[in-house]
Amino acid sequence: MRYFLLIALSTHSFGHNFLSPLATLRSAHSTLSHAFTRRRPYPTIQMEETLRKALAEKQSAVDSQGNAVRALKAAKATKADVDAAIEALNGLKLEKASIEKQLQAAVSGGDGSLSREAFRQTVNNTLERRLFYIPSFKIYRGVAGLYDYGPPGCAVKSNVLGFWRQHFVLEENMLEVDCPCVTPEVVLKASGHVDKFTDLMVKDEKTGTCYRADHLLKDFCNEKLQKDLSITAEKAAELKHVLAVLDDLSSEELGAKIKEYGITAPDTKNPLSDPYPFNLMFQTSIGPSGLSPGYMRPETAQGIFVNFKDLYYYNGNKLPFAAAQIGQAFRNEISPRQGLLRVREFTLAEIEHFVDPENKSHPKFSEVANLEFLMFPREEQMSGHSAKKIPLGEAVSRGIVNNETLGYFIGRVYLFLTRLGIDEDRLRFRQHLANEMAHYAADCWDAEIESSYGWIECVGIADRSAYDLRAHTDKSGVALVAQEKFSEPREVEKLVINPVKKELGLAFKGNQRMVVEALEAMNEKEALEMKATLESKGETEFLVCTLGKNVTITKSMVTISKEIKKEHQRVFTPSVIEPSFGIGRIIYCLYEHSFYTRPSKAGDEQLNVFRFPPLVAPIKCTVFPLVQNQQYEEVAIVISQSLTTAGISHKIDITGTSIGKRYARTDELGVPFAITVDSTSSVTIRERDSKDQIRVDVEQAATVIKEVTDGRTTWADVWSTFPHQSSASADDE
Amino acid sequence: MRYFLLIALSTHSFGHNFLSPLATLRSAHSTLSHAFTRRRPYPTIQMEETLRKALAEKQSAVDSQGNAVRALKAAKATKADVDAAIEALNGLKLEKASIEKQLQAAVSGGDGSLSREAFRQTVNNTLERRLFYIPSFKIYRGVAGLYDYGPPGCAVKSNVLGFWRQHFVLEENMLEVDCPCVTPEVVLKASGHVDKFTDLMVKDEKTGTCYRADHLLKDFCNEKLQKDLSITAEKAAELKHVLAVLDDLSSEELGAKIKEYGITAPDTKNPLSDPYPFNLMFQTSIGPSGLSPGYMRPETAQGIFVNFKDLYYYNGNKLPFAAAQIGQAFRNEISPRQGLLRVREFTLAEIEHFVDPENKSHPKFSEVANLEFLMFPREEQMSGHSAKKIPLGEAVSRGIVNNETLGYFIGRVYLFLTRLGIDEDRLRFRQHLANEMAHYAADCWDAEIESSYGWIECVGIADRSAYDLRAHTDKSGVALVAQEKFSEPREVEKLVINPVKKELGLAFKGNQRMVVEALEAMNEKEALEMKATLESKGETEFLVCTLGKNVTITKSMVTISKEIKKEHQRVFTPSVIEPSFGIGRIIYCLYEHSFYTRPSKAGDEQLNVFRFPPLVAPIKCTVFPLVQNQQYEEVAIVISQSLTTAGISHKIDITGTSIGKRYARTDELGVPFAITVDSTSSVTIRERDSKDQIRVDVEQAATVIKEVTDGRTTWADVWSTFPHQSSASADDE
User: Among candidates B71, B102, B74, which has minimal Cα distance to B89?
Assistant: First the structure.
């Protein structure tokens, strides 16, 4: 067998390592340097972790000072010395108490800022109330892990996907394909999903309720570490070690830990079964016979790999090229948690960039080489440092990032996410550690976004070498390869194995064919060893697998030699570099990064705002007649028609509600601009975040909105061009 | 039970009646009036059917003239009379032979035009060779009924969906939602799919191969009618009748017909099993327990219905409003045939327009009232007439179309399809006959497009009354209703049923509650009858279902009266008008309507062209340096960058291939414009269908392409503005 079929799916299966224990552990090494930006509404994980670390240090200082006091007393030291030592101890205790208080505040929000949970609750209440999302099949009490996008959510998603197509498919001339979700078993057998795409599950032994074994263990460890401030340093280290190796634990090891810690079913406290694997694919049957098993695809990538040959031809038999696919993927999670971040059906956008393994340079790399953003290389993680800003060109030239093409995509992903509105201070590119990466992968980086749930893997960017194309070549028998035609023939030294059939026939009779095939199938090393043995000893023992035994090969039965051959082309399996985007996760993080509150003018309530850039905003503009009045309504309708013609999504609101309330309502949907009709000749345009207003002629309104939402001009330019309008009369009643 | 759960899913299940026998039969009544338009590359079905009818008439004329000759001979008529009769007979036979020849030509393409099958083959070869579509999982020998969209197909689909969003969602302010494909059983139980969404299947008794029972019977009848020119008029009428009632046949009736006609398995000629129902949904299991059955949704509509309450609230508790959804739907077809038209997974775009059943007017109806296109009302179909042009306003005012809202959507669908490039002469709106429509539907029209497969149902536009919302109200217990608040309270006469609990308790003891509930549940008619009987006889027998028996109710046990009540609002279940688009079918028909061939300049081959409008074209523009030359390539790259900035999908081709070949290659992809760089200051722009070329400055090129592809100007305008370029030197080498 030429290729190793043992694979670590976790690296390929985007999102499968969600909030991995490694990520949790690693964040403890971070500093406070990025702790409080303008936009972050809750204490960072880093801050919490730093405080926790400081607390542990202070605790050991208290402990050793306590020992010192006892030692002084035992040694009958002078009262002055003992008192001084006690004073020092009390000082340390006070410091410890202060850190404890800070930590408590950071965890619960007691310092006036919101706790992460409270912030998340506020965002999610707003999202659900305004139908950004709806738990699916709600009137039937829903299904865990399934969510609908309601009207504004659907518009945001459509905008994100539209920009993805523009930024990747169009600008990079990618070949987009659209394959079915229903997939026959043979395809997912080849990819390894049928055998390996599993999670370990435990069952409540009395009720039969199912849980993910690693989640229960992780929850136990985190709970202990976070809630129990009294555990010993040794115990804490042990729990942290369990979290660090959680993904590597076997079924037996997981089961043993669960027993050791006495973990029971969370809801009932009943005992749990031993862990056993559960395949995460939704299974079905294709056609009426019941004989063709199929699955709902767990990723969109396989549809591209199986089409490699046609796509390569479509591209004029030239490398490199990229194919892309946007579509639904399905994972039958054991017990989905964490809302919109771990769901059973989701939209993936995947790129497979096929490249010659001997040349992974990228012609457009210079366009991204000067970008500088948070990177978290393997070595920084191992040595306990934190993510730091590295210019991308340097990261590639220093070999931190394996090759230019991988680096180019990292840069393009950074641009994509930040243009959507992801806060660059809460975005980092984290390199996979050796134990996270499949053996065949050359390098792998995740774009992780910090949310109230922690650092979330939202885009995986992996150099998967030739693994996938080889797996499908092996299974299908169709060669998924590329050719490089040489401009002139090249001389290549080749090993030639020539079995002498006559001699073999005499020696092995009916088994001759099996022996011939086995000889021809030797690799270079085996053949050279045989050649040496035959030359020195005249014969050798040789295992023929198809016969299940050794046979004796003599010198006269085979000639093995190196020959110089002329070759006109090179045939090879391309490497694939795969950026894989979890669209739903990106959108959820975008919601958190865009959300803020501000007091109403009267100061009696907090108003919610999403600061979506126009590119993402579900509705670009609203049109409000200031008061209910036929003339104003007519003007509003005229403006609405010009907006429709210009292709700008908008909403008219002619209810008699106060203008301040109408602004607040649409701020909560993230609508960036509001046109208010307060005369028949000119209108005001209000910008959401500054609440600044300008005055423009009725005829200009749609054009101004079009230019500023298309990005052809900025609000600052508009602000400096048109007369300003005092907002006192209208806004925030 | 208030609502009838018996439903005819065929009307709702879009596409399920594909190429229904009724459509086949009906086309026989059409005339030749639309037979040969400029664009139709093969004889119409109508033409064939008309010839077939003429042939049958001529055959009976021959028969009766033959009888006349025999009668004359038997009567010993004069030789002159007999000869004259024989001459007439021979004349008739010659005419019959001539019609036969025409028919043969029309069926096989022997008249020089392509046969339908040959045309289809040419289109499909082109589509598959250029990767508009690819049989899914081809390297594993594929799966029937699953297709991928390759790069140009994917771009066409994305353009069609983008225009759908613009034309419907944006222009009509619809609420778009996006729900999962995985659907729990309870939802599809309520909708009726679990029980009724079946096809009748027969099995080859020896091999187990499955077939759709109605397809086998249909094929048999069509084959007989089309290939066997000798069958008697009676036999032909019988076969046509079978085709007409095919959809109404029970399992037993279908089985009996299959036996009567001796139909066997098509591949093996083995006997067939009796027909039995097969549910067409892909089944799966949600979560790890195996206790939650689920299905891949067979349509997107249910996701909207279950969200009605939230969407109504989102719309400010106001009617009418429409919700829309684009997404994948799944049908596990028994044996998919007819390529891209009957597939197991497909994209649906559905609109559910919720409206007060007492007011189905539409404020924008006047905008479509003057449209005039082919309509095929129920009565025309029944009376054997053909589709005819009727102004939409007239169709509504004369009551042919049930209401303005339904009419408005018919008009909008017409505009949508024709703007995509569907030939309006091969598009008709056909009203469902009584036996096609569910009992609850108020009216239903299909947009049918003529393709080489016949008339294809591509959009269904149905007034489904309150059926769906009521079904989910009943099953979920959540009232999916709307309220109309009256500006002042209204007096309403109401029937009031007051059971006298004391008397009932004495009479029925422990059964009292069941009797009370049964009395309260009486409808108006039942209650009035009871009132009359009690007044005349003093007592009556009354069936209490929950007790399973009759009880005797006396006058003292209940009072039934009509009372005047004041009501402040009306609570009602909205009606829903549902336009449902089969996106894949529309795209396939668009391919056929857009395809044509023209001879190469040398005349030695036929070149393929897709005449997609810019809106639909997968790539809007190509950039070709005329010859391989660094200066020209640099200009080409500059133009390419401006096109990217303008958001125009395009392709550079710098191969040394002749310009004529490069034009031909992209004509075959339907690229409307080509920019050829033949100097460093100015370039030519070529239009695909006319092959006309203009000359523009390098700086203008992207702008001209942008304006003409956005529809802000036309090629005719561009042609009259810029200098013309002789094409002799470049095109069609």
Answer: B71
Give CA torsion, residues B34, B39, B41, B44, to 10 deg. Answer: -20
Distance from CA of A703 to the nearest CA of B (A): 15
Whether B186 contacts chain A with CB within 8 A:
yes
Which CATH code, of 3.40.190.10, 3.40.50.300, 3.40.50.800, 3.40.50.980, is assigned to B619-725? 3.40.50.800
- Cβ distance A713 to A638 under 8 Å? no
Enter the DSSP assignment of A178.
Answer: B
Percent of chain B whose pLDDT exceeds 70: 91
State whether A344 and B155 contact (CB < 8 Å): no
CA distances from A95 to A58, A62, A339 (A): 8, 10, 38
Residue position matching structure tokens 């669209």: A583
Verify whether the Cβ–Cβ distance B303 to A136 is below 8 Å. Answer: yes
- At A9 the pLDDT is 34
Residues from chain A that touch B330, judged by Cβ atoms under 8 A, are: 181-182
Mutate to test the interface with B, among A128, A140, A289 (most CBs of B within 10 A): A140
- Across the interface, of B181, B184, B278, the residue whose CB is closest to A288 is B278
| Predicted confidence (pLDDT) per residue in B196-240, tens digit | 999 999 999 999 889 999 999 999 998 888 777 777 878 888 888
Contact, A427 vs A418, CB < 8 A? Answer: yes
* Chain B environment of A181 (Cβ under 8 Å): 181, 296, 328, 330, 345
- Give the mean pLDDT of A51-76: 86
Instruction: For residue A129, count other CB atoms closer than 10 A to its CB.
Output: 13
A140-143 contacts at long range (C-beta below 8 A, 24 or more positions apart): A140/B184, A140/B186, A140/B187, A140/B306, A140/B475, A140/B476, A143/A344, A143/B182, A143/B184, A143/B286, A143/B292, A143/B294
Query: DSSP 3-state helix, strand, coil percentages of chain A (rounded to 5)?
Result: 45, 25, 35
Find which of A133, A165, A182 to mutate to test the B interface (most B CBs within 10 Å of its CB): A182
Please give the Cα distance from A127 to A154 (Å, whole number): 12
A286–B contact, CB cutoff 8 A: yes
Can you tell me the distance from the alpha carbon of A676 to that of A696, in angstroms, rounded to the nearest whole number? 10
Check pLDDT > 60 for residue B33: no
Enclosing H/E stretch for A496 = strand A482-499
Instruction: Give me Rg for the CA atoms of chain B.
Output: 32
Does residue B149 belong to the interface with chain A, where contact is any CB pair within 8 Å? yes
In the CATH scheme, what architecture does the domain B487-572 have?
Answer: 2-Layer Sandwich (3.30)
In this prediction, residue B46 carries a pLDDT of 66
B670 contacts B127 by C-beta, under 8 angstroms: no
Instruction: Identify the band that residue A43 occupies on the pLDDT scale cut at 50, 70 and 90.
Output: low
pLDDT at B460: 96
Q: According to CATH, what is the number of the domain A488-568?
A: 3.30.720.200
- Residue-averaged pLDDT of chain A: 88
**Mean pLDDT, rounded, for A54-74:** 87
Nearest-angstrom CA–CA distance, B486 and B571: 11
Query: How many Å apart are CA B659 and CA A560, to the nearest integer?
Result: 52
Comparing alpha-carbon positions, the chain B residue that sits nearest to A182 is B345
CB atoms within 10 A of CB B232: 10
Two tokens, residue B640: 């390419």
The stretch A99-125 carries a mean pLDDT of 76
CATH topology for the B198-279 domain: Herpes Virus-1 (3.30.40)
pLDDT in tens, A624-644: 999 988 999 999 999 999 998
CATH 3.30.720.200 in chain A: give the residue spans: 488-568
Residue intervals of chain A classified under CATH 3.40.50.800 are 619-725
DSSP string computed for A288-309: SSS--EEEE-S-SHHHHHHTHH
pLDDT of B404 > 90? The answer is yes
